[in-house]
Design brief:
four-stranded parallel β-sheet, two-stranded parallel ribbon, alpha/beta, 9 helices, 225 residues
Length: 225
């Protein structure tokens, strides 16, 4: 662990050393995957609770090496898409008809955005069209190209700077309300850790864009809804 309070705690049962990072961490992961393949060649590895930047790196590193999946990214994404598709059937619409806003850009939020884009592409949209229909926000605001303080893994979900500027003419980073109004969102998904975001004003803003809005408050724990 990297937490000094745990390392100094006599009741801590983990290894009393700092967490590996960088190449040393990946070298350890390589040895783990090799050991699994050697001992259980038909096993499927489930990656669970990795930090958001490492989660995507690990998933991509072993995609063509061993059968595996990341529950936070792909599991959450699959379940969320199932919910959105079920809601679309109730309104006689397709997934690709929706304009989606996701509040939360951790492994779960980024994973859900990726799965939803892939679903739209399967319905006939181009990758660019699909990206333009799935807005993702982190604690700073809308993800867009060239925005400062944005981790590399978020680039796949970034909108164009021109679109972001149209949402916030003052030049700031578009917030949740501005993104909902600017994009004319029909579906709002909560996957972040900031409490109190789904206010009456936010819900009414989504409802103003369509007859039957899709609202999925999925933040965990639910105190963060």
């Amino acid at each position: 662990t990297g937490r000094e309070d745990l390392l100094s705690d006599p009741m801590y049962l983990g290894v009393k050393m700092g967490r590996l990072t960088g190449e040393a961490y990946m070298a350890m992961m390589d040895k783990f995957v090799q050991a699994v393949q050697r001992n259980w060649p038909k096993a499927i590895i489930q990656w669970e609770d990795f930090s958001k930047d490492v989660a995507f790196e690990v998933l991509h590193r072993y995609r063509d090496v061993v059968s595996s999946f990341n529950d936070d990214i792909q599991g959450t994404g699959a379940v969320t898409m199932a919910g959105v598709i079920a809601a679309c059937k109730k309104t006689n619409q397709k997934l690709s008809d929706q304009m989606i806003v996701i509040s939360g850009a951790g492994a779960g939020g980024a994973g859900v955005a990726w799965v939803l884009r892939e679903g739209m592409i399967r319905e006939g949209l181009t990758p660019e069209q699909a990206r333009a229909r799935v807005m993702v926000l982190d604690s700073t605001g809308l993800l867009y190209e060239g925005r400062h303080k944005m981790e590399a893994y978020k680039n796949d979900s970034a909108q164009t700077a021109e679109l972001a500027k149209s949402f916030a003419p003052d030049g700031g980073v578009p917030n949740l309300l501005q993104t909902i109004k600017g994009s004319k969102a029909t579906c709002l998904i909560g996957l972040g850790g900031i409490t109190g975001q789904f206010t009456e004003e936010i819900i009414k803003a989504v409802a103003a864009n369509c007859e039957i809005p899709i609202i999925l408050p999925l933040s965990n724990p639910n105190a963060n809804v």
